[in-house]
Amino acid sequence: MEFEWWWLLSLPLFFGLGWVAARIDLRQLLSESRALPRSYFKGLDFLLKEQPDKAIEAFIEVVKVDPQTVELHFALGNLFRRRGELDRAIRMHQNLAQREDLGDEQKLQALLELGQDYLKAGLLDRAEEVFGKLSDSPHRETVLRHLLDIYQQEKDWSKAIAAARNLAERTGHSLQKEIAQFYCELAEGCLLDTDPDGAKRYLQEALQSHRQCMRATILLGDVAASAGQWAEAINAWKRIESQDPAYLALVAEKLLDAHRALGKEEDGLRLVRGYLERYPSLDLMDVVFQTTLAREGAAAAYRWMRDELRRTPTLLGLDRLLEAQLLEAPLDRRRDLELIRNLVRHHTRNLALYCCDHCGFKARQFYWRCPACGGWETCPPRRIEEREGVAA
Ligand SMILES: [Zn+2]
Questions:
Q1: Which residues have CB atoms below 5 A from the ion given as ligand 1?
Q2: Global pTM?
Q3: Where does a domain end: 109, 142, 170?
Q4: pLDDT tens-digit map of 359-383
Q5: Which of 151, 86, 71, 150 is nearest to 117 (CA)?
Q6: What separation in Å is there between the alpha carbon of 235 and the centre of ligand 1?
Q7: Is 125 exposed, middle or buried (0-12, 13-18, 19+ CB in 10 A)?
Q8: Residue 145: inside a domain, yes or no?
Q9: What is the whole-number distance in angstroms between the Cα of residue 198 and the centre of ligand 1?
Q10: Domain endpoint, select from 120, 137, 170
Q11: CATH code, 155
Q12: Which of 39, 76, 120, 341 is geometrically suited to a Cys-Cys bond with 61, CB 3.0 to 4.6 A?
């Protein structure tokens, strides 16, 4: 077959068409990248290099050049809040909430963010006001959660109860334990105002909300004790055993005081010793030790502690044993004993703390509400030594 030379003439045409096509693609690409300011890419570059400060500066530049980038405004605002730059976060979200060109949904989102900025800044009144505007919005569940947090921080327990009930109804998630605690807070307020009848009413409400509320049972005993009704107080505190024996540690001292007031200290001591046998606890051990020491002297306290230590060997128990021994020891042995005791005490310092199950916060004192994470009943009344099984 003869080669047809005229075909060669079409080659430049094909090259020409390819060149035109390439230019069209290139032009489109260039126009698209021009739509995003250079600072945007610079910001991304800084983010990838993990330099958030420079990234923020670059993004602020984008926002100035192109106010249409609403999503970037939101992202920056949240970034400011996370970094604790609350003034900047508040300004950004205030501007967004006031912008005429935004739709309703975005304005509500801006208000929600603004409320969270105020909350983090501790401006509770303003946060409450902003969240109040969102109570009928699609964000109402989130808003209720934040309001519940605010009312607890403000110690406005009546409002907290209403918010918790509302939230539980919407989510189907029970908040009975928390509601009972709010009633206990109200009852404690009444006790401070010497209004025992008011306190009793709140405590009944607490137990109706959550039958296992140990704090309500303990406070019912406290109300009776404050009126000198010792037998009634003892009966209330004894009920803790059937609720959760771990919490007996919180009433052991009170039980002894009430028995003492009735002239029956020995019965009280027998009762608490019985608890200790059935539910070993460092706090119960300490109460029995101190009472034995006060009632029967150092020698008896030492003997009792030695037997207890054989049964449940703990460093905190050893510390008490040395304490009793020190009281009895002749002068020449006292120095050695003190040295040993200081060594033991050094090791037990961190073992004698309570610890939050939720966030790990540690404290010498018992809290119904964790001061760090705000969880209710998340710090059980058990010292770290017994919980971590250091004794074992
Ligand atoms: Zn906690």
A1: 356, 358-359, 361, 370, 372-373, 375
A2: 0.77
A3: 170
A4: 999 999 999 999 999 999 999 998 8
A5: 86
A6: 32
A7: exposed
A8: yes
A9: 30
A10: 170
A11: 1.25.40.10
A12: 39
